[in-house]
Amino acid sequence: MSKRTTATICPASSLDASLLDRWYQLxxxxxxxxxxxxSSSFTQAVAAERHGVEVAVIETEGTIVxxxxxxxxxxxxxxxxxxxxxxxxxxxxxxxxxxxxxRVLRDGRLSAWQFDHLVTGHDCLSPFQWAYSDSPFMDLxxxxxxxxxxxxQRGGKEMAEVLRKxxxxxxEVAHVRFEPESTNCxxxxxxxxxxxxxxxxxxxxxCFRPAWIRPLLNRLLHTHGEAFRPMLSAMYVGxxxxxxxxxxxxxxxxxxxxxxxxxxxxxxxxxxxxxxxxAQAAESLGISRIDMGRGDESFKRTxxxxxxxxxxxxxxxxxxxxxxxHSWVWAKKLLRGTPLREPxxxxxxxxxxxxxxxxxxLDSGS
Length: 366
Fold this sequence. Notes:
This protein has 366 residues and is α+β, with helices and mostly antiparallel strands. The protein has eleven helices and 13 strands.
């Protein structure tokens, strides 16, 4: 007879010390959960700035076996805690945990749990995964030089080109200086401004538009958990900011979360320079891996040592809505392998961009 699963729903901000302790234990017991996005510190920071962030505390015969952090939307949908900024998603549970997810949703009065960056590995979630993609990372566990040689052996010339451009910038413009960890709010504000300008140029939706995003980033900049910490890194040309990355750390794992650069130095590829600077400093900073996030940008393919498999899908108690969501995910998957991919992605970007503007106009009353 299978063991009975039950779930208790708690506001993420109200978890007591014993529950946070158990969360930490379960996260450490599963190597697939070493990303900072699985830290209770991340979930609680989001909960302090965003309404609807909850945690399903999952028990089997009186023992807590897992946690499911999510943001409740439209009263019945469990969505990623920080929306599109949640680069890794999943259950906080041991790898072999057997959890009845439909029962968890029922106990939480939820109709569906939707995900698009689910880290694979839990067998109990396999039936709900509909499409897969890769999230590349830089393996720096042996130091920078072995990593650099690995990039060269894989045929990537971009690393050598970035190092050449760095020397040229340093020689012909001004000294290139790297600051691995900053707590300067002005640096963070500059990063957001640059990123918003970039998104507008690319006609992509502004992920910083929701009112809770800026306060969240400022809160995270000063949030330190048992292993969780922020890492705001900046590269300067002389005294002028050239590139910034806001990353999140969980022990030796750094997730290079948000990167932007000064358009003035675009021809030198300052964003890539900053990534290489981070890789060069990783050993001295106690970093063994840098996650770059899902995406098919050329630099990710060049700098990649390996990938984390992530899935898109949903646990959905609604038959029709679940089938429609499944069909949409499969349609996107099929388009990725055809000449229609780029036109379809451009159309989706334009629709999201226009929708974001309309939503902002309605919210502001204009």
